[in-house]
Write a structure and sequence with these properties.
disordered N terminus, alpha/beta, Rossmann fold
Length: about 190
């Protein structure tokens, strides 16, 4: 990621506007239902002990953390954006899960946790935004206990949905003028206020 973009991304993440837009676009009932099913599936496959330590990296507004907390698990939820952590705190309070989720500001490239701290790590929709993928994966692996599980959710840039989405955006003139191929795939962004 070039230096200009790093500074712009950091400034943008400190404002809630980008997160407000994301919530308006993606926090639909269908999306909520999807993640309910995903968390049911994840917990059925992992069959984690109730005392398992979960880390939600790039937690955003804590939607997935709250779903896991409602299933009886305790989590540490981290994000780089102070603005989104304020939104997450509000969501945690309104869900009644404040005793089950600890919020922290962290950088995925240099997590402050001790080695082998967590039994399970959730990293959903995060790695596509990280320019140094190897360091991020290394940090996740470092804080994961031996025999633990990292759950990663990312879009596939080669999927039919992704390809059609880019073609349609190009046809209607809505594609980003800033698109970069990264280790994790295609990263597109817009400069906003």
């Amino acid at each position: 990621m070039n230096n200009w973009r790093s500074k712009e991304v950091e400034k943008t993440l400190q404002k809630s506007t980008i997160h407000d837009r994301w919530i308006a676009a993606y926090r639909t009932q269908e999306n909520v239902n999807f993640f309910e099913q995903v968390m049911d599936y994840v917990t059925s496959v992992l069959n984690p002990r109730k005392d398992s330590k979960f880390l939600d990296v790039g937690c955003g507004t804590c939607t997935k953390s709250i779903l896991l907390a409602k299933r009886g698990y305790t989590l540490v939820a981290v994000d780089f954006s102070e603005a989104v952590l304020k939104m997450a705190e509000s969501n945690i309070m309104s869900s009644g899960m404040q005793g089950k989720i600890i919020l922290k500001r962290e950088n995925i490239l240099s997590l402050t946790f001790e080695n082998e701290t967590f039994d399970h790590i959730l990293c959903w929709g995060v790695l596509m935004h990280i320019p140094d993928l190897e360091t991020a994966i290394s940090e996740l692996s470092r804080v994961l206990k031996k025999g633990g599980t990292i759950i990663i959710g990312e879009n596939n840039m080669f999927s039919l949905q992704s390809v059609l989405h880019r073609i349609i955006k190009r046809l209607v003139g809505k594609q980003s003028k800033y698109t970069e191929r990264t280790q994790a795939g295609l990263e597109s962004w817009f400069v906003t206020e």
